[in-house]
Design the sequence.
C-alpha cells in the first residue's frame, strides 16, 4: 500500500539519505519509530507537531493503528520512500513531494523580545492543566506538594541557580545535567527540560556563554544515561535542531497560542520543554 509523507525537516531528510535498511523500533497509536541501530526517525500521523526527526504522513491515528506491523519488522530506505515490511503486506511512504522545513535555531532574540517571551511563557504555564515541571514554575507551589522526582528536580535547579550567581559555570552545568534521565515515559521530564534549556540558550544569545560550553559537554557525554528516544532529541538540541513549536517562539506568540502549541507535544513533554526555555531566558544573559 502506498502513502505520502507530507512534511519533514531538512535534518530528517539528511538522515534518510544515508540510510538503507533498518527495523521498526517501536509502535504507538500516532507514531512508528524507525531505526538503523543508531539513528531514530518517527513516522507520525497527520497533524502531529513536527520535530527534527518527524516524518509526518497522511494517515490518521486510527489508520496508523490499523497497520499490520510490529517492533522488529524490517524497514527499507531509498531516496524516494520508506518501506515497512509488515507481517502481511508492504507499506510504502513516499517523501519526494513532502514539504521540507529548516528547524535549526540560530538567531537570538532582542532584549525586549526575550523579556516579552519570558512573560508570555510564564502566563501560559500559570494556566496549563499539565503538571510535570510546570509545578516548579508556579509562584505558590509548596515543596511538600511535589513528588519525589519533582523534589529532586527542584533541588538540582535551585543549586544550579546558586552556582550561576557565583559564576561557577562548570559546576552549575554539572548540577543541571543531573536532570538527565530524570522522570518516566519515552522522554523523561528532565530531558525535555534540558532540551528547552538548550533552545533557550540560543534565544537568550548565550551560545558563546561558558555555561553553554560546559552544559553541552555534560549532556553529550551522558546521552547513554537516558532512554534512546530521549537521547535522540537531546542530540538534536545539541545541534540546535528543535520542534516547530519551539521555532515559532521567535515570533513571540501570545500565551494562549504558546499553551496550545506546547500542550499538543506529548503527555507533558512540550510543557516541560517550555519550562526549560523559561528558566534559561530568566537566568542566562548574553
Sequence:
Amino acid at each position: 500500500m502506498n502513502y505520502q509523507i507530507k512534511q519533514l525537516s531538512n535534518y530528517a531528510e539528511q538522515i534518510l539519505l544515508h540510510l538503507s535498511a533498518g527495523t521498526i523500533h517501536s509502535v504507538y497509536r500516532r507514531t512508528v519509530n524507525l531505526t538503523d541501530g543508531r539513528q531514530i526517525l518517527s513516522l507520525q500521523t497527520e497533524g502531529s507537531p513536527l520535530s527534527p526527526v518527524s516524518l509526518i504522513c497522511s494517515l490518521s491515528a486510527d489508520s496508523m493503528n490499523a497497520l499490520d506491523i510490529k517492533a522488529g519488522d524490517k524497514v527499507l530506505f531509498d531516496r524516494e520512500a520508506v518501506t515497512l515490511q509488515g507481517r502481511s503486506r508492504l507499506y510504502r511512504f513516499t517523501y519526494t513531494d513532502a514539504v521540507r522545513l529548516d528547524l535549526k535555531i540560530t538567531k537570538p532574540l532582542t532584549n525586549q523580545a526575550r523579556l516579552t517571551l519570558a512573560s508570555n511563557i510564564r502566563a501560559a504555564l500559570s494556566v496549563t492543566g499539565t503538571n510535570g515541571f510546570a509545578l516548579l514554575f508556579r509562584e505558590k507551589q509548596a515543596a511538600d506538594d511535589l513528588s519525589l522526582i519533582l523534589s529532586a528536580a527542584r533541588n538540582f535547579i535551585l543549586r544550579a541557580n546558586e552556582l550561576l550567581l557565583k559564576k561557577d559555570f562548570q559546576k552549575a552545568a554539572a548540577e543541571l545535567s543531573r536532570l538527565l534521565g530524570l522522570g518516566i515515559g519515552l522522554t523523561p521530564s528532565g530531558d525535555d527540560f534540558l532540551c528547552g534549556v538548550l533552545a533557550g540558550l540560543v534565544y537568550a544569545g548565550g551560545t558563546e556563554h561558558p555555561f553553554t560550553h560546559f552544559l553541552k559537554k555534560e549532556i553529550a557525554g551522558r546521552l547513554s544515561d537516558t532512554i534512546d528516544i530521549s537521547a535522540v532529541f537531546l542530540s538534536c538540541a545539541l545541534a540546535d535542531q528543535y520542534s516547530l513549536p519551539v521555532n515559532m517562539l521567535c515570533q513571540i506568540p501570545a500565551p494562549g497560542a504558546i499553551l496550545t502549541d506546547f500542550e499538543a507535544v506529548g503527555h507533558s513533554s512540550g510543557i516541560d520543554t517550555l519550562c526549560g526555555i523559561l528558566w534559561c531566558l530568566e537566568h542566562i544573559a548574553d
In short: The first helix runs from residue 10 to 16.
